[in-house]
Write a structure and sequence with these properties.
alpha+beta; Beta Polymerase, domain 2; globular; nine-stranded mixed beta sheet
Length: about 475
């Protein structure tokens, strides 16, 4: 039987349920396309396993709403729906980063064809901002950081700004129409919409598929092929995935999410760059012990971050995972020793504590973007205290996460036994809901407990010995072993 961490690697509902979820999605997507013809006919949706609350996207957790596995849904996905596809090599890329912080951009459709402009005029805003006092070449340079081809002068992009606020409003209205149509004309074998809610930039829908409920977080995005010039520096560095996947796989495309900067951003103009397609590829290259440690850390932290929400999400932990894989030797990350996942878990928790206290978490693809600069001193202190509590006894918190999974599984069983779909409201939290956890899978948690007990009050982390980088080490305080 595999270690306890593996309980958090996937959702155990069987291939049949996953196929059912995809079929539900396909039918619903066709219905949305029928209601409104603006979506591209030959569209390419990116389906991510896990809801947006699981950290699959860099979104503000305070806007995502509360849903609990077992009580509200049984399986969850995040779906990126391209409202606009800028994949044509002859179509100029029109990112405008002159007025946005790192990792954000305005998007002008000024240079698009007349058909595109006419189709999306309802989601565009005009603005003509000239900067005569600024140097023209400086603006050209800023535009060049946003795209491989910088069209004309920077002023040529002013106007026709594709508004994320208007796009999400439009998308919510279209999905709502599709749901109403589905409810008015139910068909045998077609999923029934159980809930439809708006949560910030998300449209969250729960579909009833047989005896299971599938949650989809739908996000309208702008889809690009290739790679933005602003992130070209990432390609020149050494990475853990080098030689495991091709560069073409790693940089096949990127997205714009309808999210502004948490520090005085403009929700009506500002989009956030997202590299979800690349992250899907990079996750394939993460060594198994490190993947175990990450899933365990995410399961433990989901309870920590649930109340109150203070701007920290599992996406920050995923970012630290990528940084750690770049920093540490592959031989250590792949070590077959039984204690490796436990040590890696402690290292991730320590990395997160360091980022919180410094209010600094560089974006993996755009290091110039600090994803925690919005935290106040009070928020950082509160999070650090909570994380310190987890760090003092990670084994106990891991057991609590397992108990939470048992309870979620029990709620599902009770709902099915009672013949209802919803079951009870208010599940104790989020986590895998298979309900088949054996006590013998607590062995690794016990090893974690031993490691902490033997080194009370000390920081146990995964690092490299600066005096000997030829082999991996772990560190207890200032001593390497």
């Amino acid at each position: 039987m595999r270690k306890v961490f593996q309980l958090f690697l996937a959702y155990f509902y069987g291939q049949m349920l996953i196929e059912k979820a995809v079929k539900c999605l396909h039918y619903f997507g066709c219905l949305v396309q029928k209601v409104d013809q603006r979506l591209p006919v030959a569209n390419e949706y990116l389906l991510l396993s896990g809801g947006a609350r699981e950290g699959v996207l860099d979104l503000n957790p305070e806007e995502l709403g509360d849903y609990a596995k077992g009580a509200d849904f049984d399986l969850d996905f995040t779906l990126l729906v391209p409202a606009l596809k800028l994949h044509d090599r002859n179509q100029p890329v029109t990112l405008d980063m002159r007025r946005s912080p790192p990792c954000h951009s305005w998007l002008s459709l000024r240079l698009c064809d007349s058909a595109t402009l006419a189709r999306w005029s309802v989601c565009c805003q005009e603005e003509n901002l000239l900067h005569p006092a600024e140097d023209e070449e400086e603006y050209e340079e800023e535009l060049g950081r946003g795209s491989a081809s910088s069209p004309g002068s920077p002023q040529s992009l002013d106007g026709c700004y594709f508004s994320p606020a208007l796009v999400t409003d439009w998308f919510w209205a279209v999905v709502s129409q599709a749901v109403e149509e589905l409810r008015r004309n139910p068909k045998r074998g077609i999923p029934v919409p159980e809930r439809l809610e708006r949560n910030g930039p998300l449209t969250t829908i729960i579909l009833q598929a047989g005896s299971s409920r599938v949650l989809y977080d739908l996000v309208p995005v702008v889809s690009f092929r290739g790679w933005p010039a602003v992130a070209q520096g990432w390609l020149t560095a050494n990475h853990f995935w080098d030689g495991k996947i091709t560069e073409e796989e790693a940089i096949s495309g990127f997205y714009l999410l309808p999210c502004c900067s948490p520090l005085a951003g403009r929700p009506d103009r500002e989009w956030r760059l997202a590299f979800s397609r690349s992250e899907v590829q990079l996750k394939k290259c993460i060594p198994f012990p490190m993947a175990q440690a990450f899933q365990a850390a995410k399961a433990v932290l989901s309870r920590l971050l649930s109340r109150p929400r203070t701007g920290l999400s599992p996406y920050h932990l995923r970012t630290l995972l990528f940084w750690a894989c770049d920093r540490l030797p592959a031989s250590y990350l792949s070590s077959p020793e039984t204690d490796s996942p436990g040590r890696l878990l402690l290292g991730l928790l320590d990395d997160l504590a360091h980022c919180i206290l410094g209010k600094n978490c560089p974006n993996y693809f755009l290091p110039q973007c600090n994803m925690l600069e919005h935290l106040s001193d009070g928020q950082a202190l509160l999070l650090a205290r909570k994380l310190g509590h987890v760090r003092s006894d990670p084994a106990e918190h891991l057991r609590a996460a397992l108990d939470q999974a048992r309870q979620a599984g029990q709620l599902k069983k009770e709902a099915l036994a009672g013949g209802g779909a919803n079951g009870q409201a208010g599940s104790p939290g989020h986590g895998p809901a298979n309900g088949i956890i054996s006590p013998c899978e607590d062995k690794l948690a016990q090893r974690l407990q031993q490691l902490v007990t033997e080194n009370p009050g000390k920081s146990i982390s995964v690092f490299l010995n600066p005096d000997d980088v030829t082999r991996p080490h772990f560190r207890i305080d200032d001593k390497f072993y």
